[in-house]
């Protein structure tokens, strides 16, 4: 305590330190990076496997299963899942947070190296991708030919792949720029099957000839006296048409050239994907930040460079099709406004209670100082401004003025005696309240500490909130015992008489508080008699009844959030061409652009190798739209009403097999496929298909579920060629030779690469003219090469149509099928209960299981963790109070107010229409610390009065009289500070408003009960102690 006197008598040092802290805080506030939410996704490593020409079944049996087994054995793997389609498999390993991608990627690479020799030799090398929050694009550019430009889309793709991508990658904070959208250039050699047969050649001979003749071959070294010269045979052509000079055969009639039997042209590859930006065909470029990098740093870097890029590529049109920037800036701007409103409301509450302009201004001075010290602390520990951290700052508004008010009132009470100087009053007032103020700060922080180490997803979201809140509380304490007394010695004057407005407010305040104080005193006196044995059970009953109402509010992991961004995931029928899918997409985009409030959208259909951010496992019939609307304050309809309208309109579009319309952030984690996800596991795909149909039909009866679909079904047509092995032997043909021939004839094969200086080059793709094999009949007449001359395919095989899985999905080394569903705003607990009831009597064969892997699984894990944190917080709180008060009994008295706070919580949740969720659980833990502070103020005053010789009852009654006003004021100022959060006055606050609702409703009930119940408990325990001591 001597230190208080030391720095108040010599304020220069502490003033200089505070000044430096404030200046650093200002710099920090202006330079802290912005984001929407903290990075919270589990680290994932994706392995992309490509085996040209392989069916999904072959990819699963010979490739994917081996990779899955190897990845499953890596330490700290949470789960391994695979999505397999023809030619491609995407295997993802998800790791615990503690693993980190820097440790996971080398482990995955080592696992692949172990099994690489056992994989098919003609597979492409496996590609490893890091998947994290940074995989989500910061910005999506749509690049297309500009007005008046005659550039083709293939040329635009070429420029995007080579020049624009390189320009973006040179920018600071840009980790990657992924290009997507089809139109990849190629040299296409379409061979006429009739001319091929006329010359007695096969498609495989054409492939071999081009591969052999279109290449540069190192041919040794020539050594001379003073130097050496490399020798190279140059066979690569400089122009595409020169490929026509490749010699196919030499006979009596002369040479046969490639131009004699094929058409050669520069075009683009047969598309398996396309991109639309704002409803127009374009090439998409996703710009990604580095892991650990900040969204706004990347955005600002790209936005600054974009005008120069547009100038450099003047013939192109650049449009923003998707961006995180608008949502982040809108949300942070709203939050700063909410912070301002919270401060204004809090200061108004303080003025109404204090009725003194000088004291109110003095308490208000501590608010900006506290904020700036908090921002300085955030900068030092590397935090960013996002919805969670700014919510913590707003939450702190009401809490941090408590410290200032308590110190001001105590200084003012010491300012009254005429024989005290203002300096002495500031010193004595601060010293007297220092311990109680410090204890209140420490107790509130102590209940937050267990949440910082709760683990899992809960820790990722709530740790930034608790750390920033703790920084604010610590900064508040520092400001209250430094800034307040320093200013108080100047502003608070003993002779200062109230003005007319202050006198009027004091009369109104006293008139309102006097009856309340009298009521509380009467209730206290009744509680110290035998009435206590009636009142206590009534309070317990009220608590039990309240908690029993909690299920009525429903439970969520995180509440739904209206960000103004919708996702539309859709699938057309498997037999539809990419062009027909594009027609369907255009109809969907027309509906969206006519929706009020529409701003922009991006559409990505299909997948491309090595491009992960646009979707790595989509078929050419699957796509994802991201649609931006005006924020919820600027449009008449909610996002969920828009969703319902779009679902209804999309249902009228022919060709759509399934469509999901859901809000951005519908699931808190990317690991959660949908809010409701029923996963069926078992060995036989046919049985899984039957079970999935049954589950889907049952879920369709559950009210509140939207867009119910399955991850796969048997709707993909496939031509089955059953080779006659005896005839193959007779003709000397192998099965592999037949497969290679058919692949080259139909899909085509890359014979070589046509190199272009300064670019990636074009593949030379050779196949039969597609117009000559566009039906099963034409396929059956293909001439398969054989030693004694070609043989018609129909001679050695039977051809028939079959229906296969649209994709193969696996998890934990066994086949799976998921039935997923979305919701509007119904709580997950309600939906899960109905889903369980709907599936209760489903008949599962032996070896098959049903698991609920949607949001409910993460919710139960998070609530279990937070429940443990609440228990740890109460234990830690008790021992902190034991140390602070040097008593085993006082903490019991102080903490007796905590159950009272929970009486109001369920009713507040029901009245506000909020669901119980992870932030609400955090609110209950925080509420425990807030309520204890009020108890500490009351018990501390009573203890000090008794030490001065005041009797037990007199000390308690005087404590009620003296502490009613500050306790009510601190409670109402806390409520006022949290009101903007509870009212959801910023985009994104829907996620955290339950925290404020819990704190407000609990505090509203507990404040009044604390002034009665805690003194009653204090008296009963004190009397018991006196009896035990024989006093």
From TrEMBL:
GO terms for cellular component: plasma membrane. This is Multidrug efflux pump subunit AcrB. One of its GO terms (molecular function) is xenobiotic transmembrane transporter activity. The keyword Acetylation does not apply. The chain crosses the membrane at residues 12-32, 335-354, 361-381, 387-411, 432-453, 465-488, 531-550, 866-885, 892-912, 918-939, 967-989, 995-1021. InterPro entries: AcrB_DN_DC_subdom, Acrflvin-R. The keyword Membrane applies. Keywords: Membrane, Transmembrane, Transmembrane helix.
């Amino acid at each position: 305590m001597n230190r208080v006197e030391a720095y108040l008598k010599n304020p220069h040092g502490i003033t200089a330190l505070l000044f430096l802290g404030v200046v650093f805080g200002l710099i920090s506030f202006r330079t802290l990076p912005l984001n929407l939410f903290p990075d919270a996704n589990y680290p994932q490593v994706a392995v992309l496997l490509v085996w040209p020409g392989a069916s999904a079944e072959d990819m699963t049996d010979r490739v994917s299963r081996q990779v899955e087994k190897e990845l499953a054995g890596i330490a700290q793997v949470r789960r391994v899942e695979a999505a397999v389609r023809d030619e491609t498999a995407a295997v993802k390993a998800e790791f615990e947070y503690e693993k980190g991608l820097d440790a996971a990627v080398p482990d995955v690479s080592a696992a692949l190296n172990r099994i690489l020799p056992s994989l098919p030799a003609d597979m492409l090398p496996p590609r490893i991708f890091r998947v994290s929050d940074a995989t989500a694009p910061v910005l999506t550019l749509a690049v297309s030919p500009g007005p008046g430009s005659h550039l083709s889309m293939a040329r635009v793709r070429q420029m995007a792949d080579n020049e624009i991508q390189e320009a973006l990658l040179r920018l600071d904070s840009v980790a990657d720029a992924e290009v997507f959208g089809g139109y990849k250039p190629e040299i296409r050699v379409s061979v006429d099957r009739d001319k091929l047969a006329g010359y007695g050649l096969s498609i495989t001979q054409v492939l071999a000839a081009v591969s052999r003749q279109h290449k540069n071959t190192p041919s040794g070294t020539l050594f001379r006296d003073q130097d050496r010269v490399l020798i190279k045979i140059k066979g690569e052509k400089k122009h595409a048409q020169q490929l026509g000079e490749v010699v196919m055969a030499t006979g009596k009639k002369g040479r046969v050239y490639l131009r004699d039997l094929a058409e050669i042209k520069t075009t683009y590859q047969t598309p398996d994907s396309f991109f639309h930006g704002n409803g127009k065909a374009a090439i998409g470029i996703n710009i990604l930040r580095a892991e650990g990098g900040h969204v706004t740093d990347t955005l600002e870097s790209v936005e600054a460079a974009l005008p120069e890029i547009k100038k450099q590529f003047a013939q192109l049109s650049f449009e923003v099709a998707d961006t995180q920037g608008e949502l982040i800036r809108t949300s942070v701007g709203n939050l700063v406004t909410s912070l301002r409103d919270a401060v204004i409301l809090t200061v108004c509450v303080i003025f109404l209670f204090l009725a003194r302009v000088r004291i109110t201004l003095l308490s208000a001075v501590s608010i900006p100082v506290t904020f700036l010290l908090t921002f300085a602390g955030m900068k030092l520990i590397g935090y960013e401004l996002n919805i969670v951290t700014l919510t913590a700052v707003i939450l702190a508004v009401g809490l941090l003025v408590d410290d200032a008010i308590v110190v001001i009132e105590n200084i003012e009470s010491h300012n009254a005696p005429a024989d005290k100087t203002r300096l002495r009053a500031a010193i004595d007032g601060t010293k007297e309240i220092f311990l109680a103020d410090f204890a209140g700060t420490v107790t509130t922080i102590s209940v937050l500490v267990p949440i910082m180490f709760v683990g899992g997803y809960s820790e990722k979201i709530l740790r930034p909130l608790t750390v920033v809140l703790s920084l604010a509380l610590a900064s508040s304490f520092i400001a209250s015992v430094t800034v307040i007394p320093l200013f108080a010695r100047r502003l608070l004057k003993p002779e200062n008489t109230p003005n007319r407005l202050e006198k009027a407010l004091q009369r109104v305040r006293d008139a309102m508080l006097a009856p309340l104080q009298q009521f509380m005193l009467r209730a206290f006196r009744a509680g110290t008699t035998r009435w206590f044995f009636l009142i206590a059970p009534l309070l317990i009953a009220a608590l039990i009844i309240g908690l029993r109402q909690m299920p009525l509010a429903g439970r969520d992991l995180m509440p739904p959030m209206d960000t103004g961004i919708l996702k539309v995931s859709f699938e057309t029928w498997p037999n539809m061409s990419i062009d027909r899918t594009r027609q369907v997409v255009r109809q969907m985009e027309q509906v969206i652009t006519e929706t009020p409030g529409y701003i922009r959208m991006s559409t990505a259909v299909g997948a491309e190798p090595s491009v992960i951010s646009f979707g790595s496992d989509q078929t050419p019939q699957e796509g994802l739209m991201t649609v931006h609307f005006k924020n919820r304050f600027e449009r008449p309809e909610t996002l969920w009403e828009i969703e319902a309208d779009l679902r209804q309109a999309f249902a009228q579009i022919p060709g759509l097999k399934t469509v999901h319309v859901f809000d951005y952030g519908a699931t808190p984690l990317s690991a959660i496929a949908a809010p409701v996800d029923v996963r069926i596991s078992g060995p036989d795909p046919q049985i899984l298909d039957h079970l999935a149909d049954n589950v889907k039909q049952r879920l369709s009866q559950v009210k509140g579920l939207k867009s119910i679909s399955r991850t796969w079904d048997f709707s993909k047509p496939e031509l089955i060629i059953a080779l006659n092995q005896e005839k193959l032997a007779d003709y000397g043909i192998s099965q592999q030779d037949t497969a290679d021939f058919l692949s080259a004839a139909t899909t085509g094969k890359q014979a070589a690469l046509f190199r272009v200086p300064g670019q990636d080059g074009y593949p030379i793709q050779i196949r039969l003219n597609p117009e000559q094999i566009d039906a099963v009949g034409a396929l059956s007449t293909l001439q398969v090469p054989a030693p004694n001359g070609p043989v018609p395919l129909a001679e050695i095989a039977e051809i028939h149509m079959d229906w296969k899985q649209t994709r193969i999905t696996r998890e934990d080394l066994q086949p799976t099928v998921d039935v997923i569903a979305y919701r509007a705003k119904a709580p997950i607990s309600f939906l899960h209960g109905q889903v369980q009831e709907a599936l209760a009597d489903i008949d599962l064969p032996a070896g098959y299981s049903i698991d609920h892997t949607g949001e409910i699984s993460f919710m139960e894990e998070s609530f279990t963790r937070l429940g443990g944190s609440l228990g740890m917080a109460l234990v830690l709180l008790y021992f902190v109070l034991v140390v602070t008060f040097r008593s085993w009994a006082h903490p019991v008295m102080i903490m007796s107010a905590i159950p009272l706070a929970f009486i109001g919580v369920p009713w507040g949740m029901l009245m506000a229409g909020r669901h119980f969720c992870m932030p609400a659980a955090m609110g209950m833990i925080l509420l425990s610390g807030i309520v204890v502070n009020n108890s500490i103020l009351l018990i501390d005053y009573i203890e000090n009065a008794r030490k001065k010789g005041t009797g037990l009852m007199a000390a308690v009654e005087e404590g009620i009289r003296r502490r009613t006003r500050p306790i009510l004021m601190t409670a109402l100022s806390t409520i006022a500070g949290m009101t903007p959060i509870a009212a959801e006055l910023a985009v994104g606050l829907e996620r955290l408003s339950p925290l404020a609702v819990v704190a407000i409703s609990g505090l509203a009930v507990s404040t009044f009960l604390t002034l009665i119940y805690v003194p009653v408990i204090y008296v009963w325990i004190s009397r018991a102690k006196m009896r035990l001591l024989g006093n």
